[in-house]
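Dear Dr. L.,

I hope this message finds you well. Following up on our conversation about the binding site, I have prepared a predicted three-dimensional model of the protein together with copper (II) ion. For your records, I am including the exact sequence and ligand specification that went into the calculation, followed by the C-alpha cells. Please feel free to forward this to your student if that is useful.
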Amino acid sequence: MKITDNITLIVTVALVVAAGMGIGFMVTNSAANNHPSGSSSAYDLNLVITTNNFFNNATGDQPAFYVLGSNGLVSSANISIPAFTQIDLTIFNYDNGNGSLYSPQYANVTGTVGNTETYFNNTLMNSTDATSSININGSITTHNVNPALIAHTFTILNSQGGTIVNIPVPVNSIVHAVFYINQTGSFTWQCEVSCGSGPTGWDGAMATPGWMTGFVNVTL
Ligand SMILES: [Cu+2]
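The resulting structure of the complex is given below.
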C-alpha cells in the first residue's frame, strides 16, 4: 500500500467513525426501547473491512476485518465483548469483492435484535435533488440481503458450528446491528463468503485469524 493510500484510508476511517457514532446513537436509542431500562449500557464494537492487504508473496492481497479501537485499527484475531450486554456493532466495509456464500442461510440476519440489520450504501446517496448538497436517503433495514450483494459476513459460531449471530455485509456499505451474547466463552467468528485464496476461496484470509476468522471472547 502506498503512503498516500494509507493517509487516505486513515482520513476516510476517521470520517466514517464520526458518522458511525451518529448512526449508532440514533439506532441504539430505538433498539434500547425494546429492553428494560435496567439493562446495562451498550458496548460499541466497530469493525472495518479493507481489501488489498498484503498477505504474503504466494497469495498476494487479501481482505481483512479490523477492530477499530480508540487508537486506530487493531487485529480482529481476538475480539473481546461483554456478556449480557447490548453490543452496538457497526461494520465499515470498503470491499466491493464478490464471493460465494458457504450456505444460503448466511444471507439471513440472525441473532440480532429483531433479526435485522440496517445498512447504508452508495445507492442511497446522491445529489440529484440539490446540486449543492448530498442527499442521504435513509437506510435499509432488513432480515436478509440478496446474496449477489454480499461481500462478507460477520458470523459468530458455537462449538458445534451452529450460528449465534450472522450479519451479512453488502459491498461498499456501512452495517449497523444490535445483539446480545447471553453466555460467556470463547467463540469462533468466521466470514461465510469464499473471499480468500486457493481453489475454493477458503484458504489465505479465510483460514487465518485476524483476517476473515478469529475468536470472540465473551466475558462478564
Ligand atoms: Cu470475507
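In brief: The radius of gyration is 17 Å.

With kind regards,
A. P.
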